[in-house]
């Protein structure tokens, strides 16, 4: 199954991004599933590298990195990056600057699109 996750919320402060990534990671590890993540709005910050979280708290960077290692594809809204001063070079390895055009293509590609 091909699943697109569109994440909107900041990586920390609510658990929406965390819960979306938990589900995406579970699906990505299962045989026959393809997962794509599109980070838009405040979720663009989720792909920023070198996140430092207190011991015992979830780390969104780690979750995205594991998802990528399991074949997940991560796109980050370019205009959202610009609005937040996020440079392409500061994205985690495997994530890429993306666009509304790519989101439209991914939406057409997906069997299911889930929005968090």
TrEMBL record:
Q: Which residues cross the membrane?
A: none
What SUPFAM superfamilies does UniProt report for this protein, alphabetically? DsrEFH-like
The protein's name: DsrE family protein
Matching entries from Gene3D superfamilies are given as: DsrEFH-like
Provide GO CC annotations from the record: cytosol
Q: Which residues form a coiled coil?
A: none
Q: Which Pfam families match?
A: DsrE
């Amino acid at each position: 199954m091909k699943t697109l996750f569109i994440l909107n919320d900041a990586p920390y402060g609510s658990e929406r991004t965390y819960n979306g990534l938990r589900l995406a990671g579970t699906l990505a590890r299962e045989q026959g599933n393809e997962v794509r993540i599109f980070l838009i709005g405040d979720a663009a910050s989720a792909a920023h590298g070198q996140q430092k979280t207190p011991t015992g708290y979830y780390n969104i960077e780690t979750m995205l990195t594991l998802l990528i290692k399991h074949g997940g594809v991560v796109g980050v809204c370019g205009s959202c990056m610009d609005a937040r001063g996020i440079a392409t070079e500061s994205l985690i390895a495997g994530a890429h600057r993306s666009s509304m055009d790519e989101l439209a293509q991914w939406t057409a590609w997906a069997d299911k699109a889930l929005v968090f």
